[in-house]
Design a protein that fits this description.
Layout: H1 6-13, H2 27-38, H3 44-57, H4 61-73, E1 86-89, H5 102-111, E2 116-120, H6 132-138, H7 147-157, E3 159-163, H8 164-167, H9 169-172, H10 175-181, H11 186-191, E4 201-205, H12 209-220, E5 229-233, E6 247-253, E7 256-262, H13 281-294, H14 300-316, H15 322-335, H16 337-346
Parallel strand pairs: 1-2, 1-4, 2-3, 4-5
Antiparallel strand pairs: 5-6, 6-7
Helix pairs in contact: 1-3, 2-4, 3-10, 4-12, 5-14, 5-16, 6-13, 14-15
Length: about 350
């Protein structure tokens, strides 16, 4: 059970004095604060104030690690993911302007033998945009799966989708707070790092390079999951779709951090951000997914899917370069194996049961 007085104490003693004078919390304090929020013992007004105060002060990597550990302690657990699974951590508030290509890229990677775990919610503030959930729904792939069903899908097809209301119902229950606060908070940051499949490889995006470094420090400090590899990049709209222009990349592997830039043009791709802007995102993104996987489309969208699939293949395999991973992705697309994975997923059935949060 959470400590009902912890948020008020932290507000008065640490984070509540404003962006210039606020003090940082310890990792333990941050974890205790989120537990108080998740268990519902904190007053709603204090919760809102705490969320805003943390936005003003900016969180340290220690605070983020504490939040992540507390969040993960309430997630519904399943059997650990098999080796080589890539956890794809995209912003839960989604995209509003550019096509969502992460589903197609994940299907290609799965067909190439690199299993991927995707996770998202539904209409999350502040953008309330299109997420994995909406594209999969438009493709006819069941999304309202229990964590156990998601894990079985991952094991049998190489592609697993985890739905926040089912694998983390306590966190999902904070949606009302988030709607009323009206701004992005640390909750937006940590939910994409939930890693419900317990994968040891993480692929995600960032807005600014210092933030990517902070995320790596937080993830590698976790006790609940030992990462083997982390690959971060500047994604379109903060999502895990690669920006078509020169992009900053950060890779953590074997305890070492490598920062570099990726220029898609060097791999033969010259499409622009405007070229991947679409309307009716869920339906259009689903249609693009089907057309690319079936071989009916060989334009800049097909190139973008191949490039994004290459990132996942590179992260989760022993491919030594993005160029090698790209060749694998293009071969899978041309061979139609990604469409076969999609058809497997479309045959899944939802149990219709509702997962209940751990009352402890």
């Amino acid at each position: 059970m959470g400590n009902p007085g912890i948020l008020m104490r932290l507000m008065t003693e640490a984070v509540g004095s404003g962006p210039k004078t606020a003090d940082d919390m310890s990792r333990e304090q941050a974890g205790e604060a989120l537990r108080a929020i998740l268990t519902g013992v904190a007053h709603p007004v204090t919760v809102g104030a705490f969320l805003c105060a943390n936005r003003w002060k900016h969180n340290t990597w220690e605070e983020l690690a504490g939040y992540i550990e507390a969040m993960r302690s309430y997630q519904i657990r399943t059997a650990p993911a098999r080796s080589g699974v890539v956890d794809c951590g995209a912003n839960y508030d989604g995209k509003t302007r550019t096509a969502l290509l992460g589903v197609a890229a994940g299907l290609v990677a799965a067909a190439a033998g690199v299993p991927v775990a995707l996770h998202s919610g539904d209409r999350i503030p502040t953008k309330y945009g299109c997420t994995y959930t909406h594209v999969l729904d438009a493709l006819g792939v069941p999304t309202d799966l229990s964590p156990e069903e998601s894990a079985r899908s991952l094991e049998t097809t190489g592609f697993g989708f985890y739905y926040q209301p089912r694998y983390n119902p306590r966190f999902h229950a904070l949606l009302d707070y988030r709607n009323h606060v009206g701004v992005r908070t640390f909750l937006n940051t940590i939910e994409r790092l939930a890693n419900p499949a317990d994968a040891h490889i993480h692929l995600g995006s960032f807005f600014h390079l210092p933030f990517a470094r902070k995320i790596i420090r937080a993830l590698t400090a976790l006790r609940s999951c030992r990462y083997e590899r982390i690959l971060l990049f500047q994604g379109l709209e903060g999502y895990d779709d690669l920006n078509p222009r020169r992009t900053k990349m950060v890779e953590w592997r074997d305890g070492a951090v490598r920062e570099f830039e990726l220029e898609p043009a060097t791999l033969g791709f010259t499409f622009t951000r405007k070229a991947v802007q679409v309307k009716n995102l869920p339906e259009t993104s689903a249609r693009i997914t089907r057309e690319v996987l079936s071989g009916a489309r060989r334009d800049h969208f097909a190139n973008a899917v191949a490039l994004n699939a290459a990132l996942r293949i590179y992260a989760g395999s022993d491919q030594t370069s993005l160029g090698e991973a790209l060749a694998v992705a293009q071969s899978v697309i041309q061979g139609g194996q990604g469409m076969a994975v999609l058809e497997q997923l479309q045959s899944l059935e939802e149990s219709g049961t509702t997962a209940c949060p751990d009352p402890s």
